UniProtKB/TrEMBL annotation:
Protein name (Swiss-Prot/TrEMBL): Ammonium transporter 2
Localization terms from the record: Membrane
Pfam families reported in the protein's UniProt record: Ammonium_transp
GO molecular function: ammonium channel activity
Domain Ammonium transporter AmtB-like: 33-280
Membrane topology: Multi-pass membrane protein
Annotated TM spans: 33-55, 67-86, 144-163, 175-196, 208-226, 238-258
Principal location: membrane
Length: 307
């Protein structure tokens, strides 16, 4: 009997063969998997990370209010994001600092290859592209989710400025309004193809869009809301230090996705970002604790037993 001839050589990896509709030719499974994991790590920074941290770092009477401020902000941002805010941040240009509002829920939109920015910007000759479009090797659904968790944590960081100060009903109104009229402006201007994007302003991982905006907004909100009541200003101890550390730990580990996902691919940039991001906090803690060693020795809970 004649030996069976081997199948013809197929240069396409086995995982991508078969022509399944869920595996288009442009999809890179590694990039897609990492981007979804990175996004979920950032989501875990907020829920349960900052929910736990906020709920435990305040006085006991403010614990539930503070935790729910973070939880509500995350949930509300997700709804607003897919309903109108994503396209205001990354959609077609409406103004130099704002995109056109619209839902990011249609299957046709979500299964297409991701692309940023949506608006092409040309030089004065109207032919030469000023800033090239980014087309990661995964679907828009992944990009929408990744950008969603960044928007959510921005609001939750802002909430830290008004813990123990703000009525929860007022916070419920504040979240969608600030997301719509503040966050989307910064996101579109810097990341979504707005005027700062085309001026060459770079924001690798949210220094402007997330941290600067939430910091300034938090300071401003705290000013207008006003100080805590006198009793809370005089004494405001955390109600559970161990849970504060647990929340901080989730925040720390989640940073691997925060910075590691920003190259929009599983590549050497993401590897370096994860290593540098994860190794920075212990170095800072080490030197900080070293400089405070004399003070720490005076704390009874840290003294070595002499018995």
């Amino acid at each position: 009997a004649m030996a069976a001839s081997p199948p013809p050589y197929n240069p396409v990896p086995v995982a991508y063969q078969g022509g399944a509709g869920a595996v288009p030719v442009w999809l890179n499974k590694g990039d897609n998997a990492w981007q979804m994991v990175a996004a979920t790590l950032v989501g875990l920074q907020s829920v349960p990370g900052l929910v736990i941290l906020y709920g435990s770092i305040v006085k006991k009477k403010w614990a539930v209010n503070s935790a729910f401020m973070a939880l509500y902000a995350f949930a509300a941002v997700v709804i607003c994001w897919v309903s109108w805010a994503y396209k205001m941040s990354f959609g077609d240009k409406l103004l130099p600092f704002w995109g056109k509002a619209g839902p990011a829920l249609g299957q046709k939109f979500l299964i297409n290859q991701a692309a940023l920015p949506a608006s092409t910007h040309y030089f004065s000759d109207h032919k030469t592209v000023e800033t090239a479009e980014i087309t990661p090797w995964y679907p828009m659904a992944t990009m929408v989710w990744f950008q969603c968790v960044f928007a959510a944590i921005t609001l939750i960081l802002l909430a830290g400025s008004v813990l123990g100060r703000m009525n929860f009903k007022a916070w419920m109104m504040f979240v969608p309004l600030w997301l719509t009229f503040s966050y989307t402006v910064g996101a579109f201007s810097l990341w979504g193809g707005g005027f700062l994007f085309h001026w060459g302003v770079m924001d690798y991982s949210g220094g402007y869009v997330i941290h600067l905006s939430s910091g300034i907004a938090g300071f401003t909100t705290a000013y207008w809301v006003g100080p805590r009541v006198k009793k809370d200003r005089e004494r405001f101890p955390p109600n559970n230090v161990l849970l504060v550390l647990a929340g901080a730990g989730l925040l720390w580990m989640g940073w691997a996705g925060f910075n590691g996902g920003d190259p929009y691919a599983a590549n050497t940039d993401s590897s370096m970002a994860v290593l540098n991001t994860t190794s920075a906090p212990p170095r800072a803690s080490w030197f900080g604790l070293g400089s405070m060693s004399s003070s720490l020795r005076s704390l009874p809970s840290l003294e070595l037993s002499k018995e």
